[in-house]
Amino acid sequence: MMNRKVILLVCLLSVVLSPLRAEGLSKGRRAVKTSGDVLMVAMPVATAATVLAIKDWTGVKEALFTGATTLGVTYLLKYTVCKERPDRSDRLSFPSAHTSISFANAAFIQRRYGWKWGAPAYAIAAYVGWSRTYARRHDWWDVAAGAIIGAGSAYIYTRPFARKHQLVISPLTDGTSLGVYASMTF
After folding, report:
1. pTM of the model
2. Is there a contact between 153 and 140 (Cβ–Cβ < 8 Å)?
3. Which helix (H) or strand (E) element contains residue 173?
4. Interatomic CA distance for residues 94 and 184, integer angstroms
């Protein structure tokens, strides 16, 4: 029953997002870009629906921390680095948010539920990353950075990593500057 709901949701998302057009792209590149866009949205939606349906409340918390960290780091870097995209559409190329979101989702699935589910999720995330370079929205290093940020965020928050290594992450301030404290055991 759950699989039908997930499939229906993915199909609905693909129909809703299919009219997206990318200026200046050939028909083939536009199709690849659109499919990458659809998968970038569909993966976390399907994962969230599944985690909520099976009532994995610890997984919900870990996924929220993973997502918040991924998005925070990605957009902090985008607006700090200001690297121009290969298609010259703007200066928000580094790192790839599509890739960081997809790899955060894939790493979360793999860490939480094992390689049986993680391997296909990583394959989809890799396709999303490739679609960003093929559509000329990112260079390969933008995609690689996004993958590292996303997967790294999931590895930090998704059990068993954090508990096993006694990971502690907390903000620091002295009143004039802001920082982050992190420690762990090896």
Report:
1. 0.75
2. no
3. strand 168-173
4. 28
